[in-house]
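In the lab's daily routine, each protein ends up as an entry in a very long ledger. A line of letters takes care of the sequence, but it says nothing directly about the fold. The fold becomes a row of whole numbers, each drawn from a learned catalogue of backbone shapes. The protein below has been through that process, and both of its lines are reproduced in full:
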Amino acid sequence: MRSWILAARPKTLPAAVVPVLVGSAVAWSSGGFSFWPAFVACTCALCIQIATNFANDYFDFVKGADTEKRVGPVRVVQSGLIAPAHVRNAMIAVLVITFVLGLYLVAIGGWPILLIGLVSILCAVIYTAGPFPLAYLGLGDVFVFFFFGIVAVTGTHFVQTLHWSRDALIPSIPIGAIATAILVVNNYRDIDTDREVGKRTLAVRMGRSASVTEFRLLLVAAYLIPIGQVFIGSGHVWLILPLASLPLAWKLQAIVVRSTDGTLLNNALGGTGKLLALYGSLYSIGIILS
């Protein structure tokens, strides 16, 4: 059981839960919150994240990207904790569960939700699989920002209110930014080993200095948007609640800037997941109170 929990990568799961939380807060603020669509959307998001992690563990091993040289958290296939076929089958099973649960959301939201669901399931696999894996082409950052930011937040809002809204689009941007920052730390840590095996992540393509800049810019964008909502738009002052998480963000960027040590960057990876959870919770509260 510990090995399967490790394979699910709990530190990455806020990237699945927080967008649903924020999208539901926007729905609540407009009087359209509905528990069961929100609950099923959260479950599907978690399943897609876990399936993506299983796929990453399996296909990176098959492609030779995970070796004994990697400095990140233990990968269950590469380390021999779980047989490759078992992880592959678990990935398929989780995606089937996601599809079945998603039919409930399709019944509510119609073809847009069906399309989003099918593309999300496909991307969970081709993130590291197939002849053109997104992660190996340097498109992982775009994938995470789009699916774990814009799609997840606006889609959650849509299945509860049955309309698309700018009120959901704007909060999706900072959530997508911090979710992407999690990936940036992961790829920044693995630059050397990824380069050796031909895994051309965006971090490998840009180099360390540019990756640090990307991490910082993502965090800056995440904090500027709620400030802009208050002082430029018509947002309520409660929307700046996420600024209470700034000390953690500052600490994390300092680690990324100053260190290439695998252990410290692993801590920064988990810390960025915590930052997303804290930021998203504060943002949701601010949206509801406003």
User: Anything to note?
Assistant: The first helix runs from residue 2 to 8. The chain has one domain: 2-289. The mean pLDDT is 91.
